[in-house]
Write a structure and sequence with these properties.
CATH topology of the largest domain: Deoxyribonuclease I, Chain A
Order of helices and strands: EHEEEEEEEEHEHEEEEEHHEHHE
Number of helices: 7
CATH architecture of the largest domain: 4-Layer Sandwich
CATH class of the largest domain: Alpha Beta
Mean pLDDT: 84
Helix content: 25-40%
Largest sheet: 6 strands, mixed
Shape: globular
Amino acid sequence: MSSTTSSLRIVSHNVNRKYDLTSNSLELFREDTDIFFIQEPPWRIVRRTVSTSLREGDPVVGPPTHPDWLIFFRRPAPGVDWTLESERPRVITYVHRRLSHLRPTFRTDIVNHRDVSLLSLFGQGESHLLNVYNDPGTAAASVWIRDNIQRLPGLVYMGGDFNCHSSDWDPDHPGESRVARELVQQAFTLGLEVSVLPERAPTHFPHNDWLWPSVIDLMFLPLDRGMDVVHSVHEWDHMGSDHVPLSVTLPIAPVVLAPGKRTLKVDSDEEQGFTGSIAILLCSLGGRPMNTPDDLEALVKDLSDGIELLWQQFSKVSRANPRSQSWWNEECTIALNLYRESQLHEEFDEWDHVTGAVEEQPRDTAVE
């Protein structure tokens, strides 16, 4: 059964090259996030392939993947060594598979840059979203946007780590830099303006305690948006990064989401609720007359409709394949909440340990 949506739920986070943080976020956000933009993504050896020179095989490196998410990033040119930091992309976009009906497209025909990526969605019209990491030394991303502004389509979103300061979005910072001033002008040309919160909310907390927290992670949203469309800063959810995630819900024209197969976990409370409710339904229909073919047809229809409603109530959309069932459980949630409340390194280490251990456990079977 298909459903519709009239909004895009977006999260943006500089994950500071943390592999486990990214992997855990993909699991944590899979129910309530549609697009996950990350900056400074992690890379590590994920497997080895046959090699003519190395007995152990050539390393294959990459970022975390997840069966619920499509992943988009710029691939280095053939023959380029992916293990070199200078060749890896510094922005990655994850799009939840529920948006597959919108034909998410990674627009390397327009943007082919390691620090800037363009995502296009096609529903009732086109929606274009830009993910940005602006290097603090070279400002390569903002330079590219400035030099290629005419190539870019109108945007509904631009966000990321811009590494520039301005009193426009950080009241504690006097004045503004040239990069910040140009960035605001570029955004306006693309139909956007920076989203500013009523109270200062730092987004970058340097690991060096002598450095002051600042606002350098930004979201630029449509000029014609409603007054209630503003971003949120999740100050206590950095989860090991020196940046905190930002989120926003953008209204769009209603679109159909991709349907998924629904399942019930074997021996779960949901399965017991489903079978028990069917028994009650059968009892409620047991006394009805069946004197004519119309009576029988009406009974069968009511039984079928009732079972369908109960199935929708108790089942959940299944994962992409049998090995990709959700590993996140109540133990993970408890550990994460303890860390969020305390913000202690010890609680973070415990949460990281719990999620790692749970992820390695065997998956449960399901009724389809």
